[in-house]
Amino acid sequence: MTTPLGPLGDLPADEMRAALHRMADWVADYRETLEGRRIVPEVSPGEVTAGLSPTMPAVAEALPVILRDLDHIVMPGVVHWGHPAFLGYFGSTSNGPALLGEIAAAALNVSAMTWRTSPAATELETVVLSWIRELVGLPASFMGIVYDTASVAVLHALAAAREEALSQVRGRGLAGRTDIPVLRVYASDQAHSSLEKAAIVLGIGQDNVVRISSDARHRMDMAALAAAIARDRAEGMLPLAVVATAGTTTSAAVDPLPAIAALCARESIWLHVDAAYGGAIGALPEGRALLDGMERADSLVVNPHKWLFVPLDFSALYTRRAEALRRVFSLVPEYLRGAASSDAGGTDRGAAIDYMDYGIQLGRRFRALKAWMVLRAFGREGITSRIREHCRLAQAVAERVGREPDFAMATPVSMSIACFRYEPAGVSHESADRLNAAIVAAVNASGAGYLTHSTLDGRTVMRMGFGNVLTTEAHLDTVWRHVVAESRRLGATHGD
Ligand SMILES: Cc1ncc(COP(=O)(O)O)c(C=O)c1O
């Protein structure tokens, strides 16, 4: 296609076909050459912008021109998260089956807001959610819904909790009411910050997220939780929810779910489990026990886009209290009455779920398609063997740490996360903090490997996370060699 689009309509069919073939080659070339690329680009802020036109083109441009700019302006500014030596954050991975699903979803461009607006998108979502529920080990009493992220999932869970605990926030709001006490939400000092954003949006207030201290293994301290709840009640506040984490962001610690669930049941407090990353461990028979107690949660989020090989974005919220969620969010405008299954005011009819009734979004992508492709193309066996391999690679980090002088694990490996620290003799803790952060920055700047630093027990640690289907022990070796080399190099100059 060398001529621009006309003033009306789309590409002619034959040109579209040719362009799609070309793009298929582009995608395949990218995947094939990924490993040879620098992981982080050598660009400074504004460099990509400088290559782009500040105003949109007044007239149509030809596709080859646009694709050339993709290669020459956009690609040089991309961080290659899919690179097999990218061990930062939680591995987010694309893969062949997922790509095919994304292409099909883009072509269809349906909105899964009600069953009628796309029966297949709705029913596939329901089926895929039941597969994932079963895979991680949740009982069938949990209903699922797909959102974009775990941040949005916890917002919905707390909105449902708030409506259950107070009367008519949906209708009357919060402002100006004297009948509403201060609401409190509890989470460990290791819990993800997304919970605080939810508290901000819901009018709970960031200051009313009570951070509970964690124990030596970074799990929520039960005695501290019980004491905080009792103290707040004595002061007339209303304990609304506990957010327990199964797989914390830094070290994949798991809070004591059975004890927290028992406390929440006794105190009539909503329990939300953040298993955004750690839920995947439930797919392993040997990992399931780590999640014991999750079945007593009121809601639980698991992100297949973190460790179930579905690319961004795909987050699944499960709840035993689906009606509570629906009471908050079901709102059918007149123009959608004909499209809604529940327009007669009744409940959903079997498979004819209107997912728009369970969240703030109306238009909803056909996300289930890519997940369906991945889960079928990998199969349960393919999923579990990859998760198991990622756990093995994290243990392999611990072995390397054990063999290297001046390195120590910061905490035992949990799931596929390894946190460690370099602390040569004669260097103060504070200086070692700066040194560890500098080592991570230097490895990342090399472009050959990528890891992140975090804080554990008040000290800076290096962290590797595994979750990419392309990562092998050879990639770990590459990153590890860089970590050791940079440690020696920077350690020699990082005196007190
Ligand atoms: C434990 C945990 N929960 C929630 C989140 C937020 O996830 P999302 O990006 O899907 O909002 C993260 C992000 O890494 C996380 O580590």
Give the topology:
Elements: H1 13-33, H2 47-51, H3 63-74, H4 96-108, H5 119-136, E1 143-147, H6 150-165, H7 169-172, E2 183-188, H8 194-201, E3 209-212, H9 222-234, E4 238-245, H10 257-267, E5 270-274, E6 299-302, H11 304-307, E7 315-319, H12 322-329, H13 368-403, E8 407-414, E9 417-422, H14 429-446, E10 452-456, E11 459-465, H15 473-491
Parallel strand pairs: 2-3, 2-4, 4-5, 5-6
Antiparallel strand pairs: 1-7, 6-7, 8-9, 9-11, 10-11
The structure holds pyridoxal-5'-phosphate (PLP).
Residues 90, 149-151, 192, 194, 245, 247-249, 274, 276-277, 303, 315 line the site of pyridoxal-5'-phosphate.
* SS content category: alpha/beta
Largest sheet: 7 strands, mixed
Low-pLDDT regions: none
The CATH architecture of the largest domain comes to 3-Layer(aba) Sandwich
Helix fraction, binned, reads: 40-55%
- The count of β-strands is 11
| Shape field | globular
Say what the CATH topology of the largest domain is.
Answer: Aspartate Aminotransferase, domain 2
CATH class descriptor of the largest domain: Alpha Beta
Q: Which range does the strand content fall in? A: 5-15%
N-to-C CA distance: 63 Å
Q: Taking Cα atoms only, what radius of gyration do you get, to the nearest Å?
A: 25 Å
Number of alpha- plus pi-helical segments: 15
CATH homology superfamily name of the largest domain:
Type I PLP-dependent aspartate aminotransferase-like (Major domain)
- Strand order across the biggest sheet? 1-7-6-5-4-2-3
- Ligands, ions, cofactors: pyridoxal-5'-phosphate
Task: Determine the mean pLDDT.
Answer: 95
Query: SSE order in H/E notation?
Result: HHHHHEHHEHEHEHEEHEHHEEHEEH
Write down the domain tally.
Answer: 2
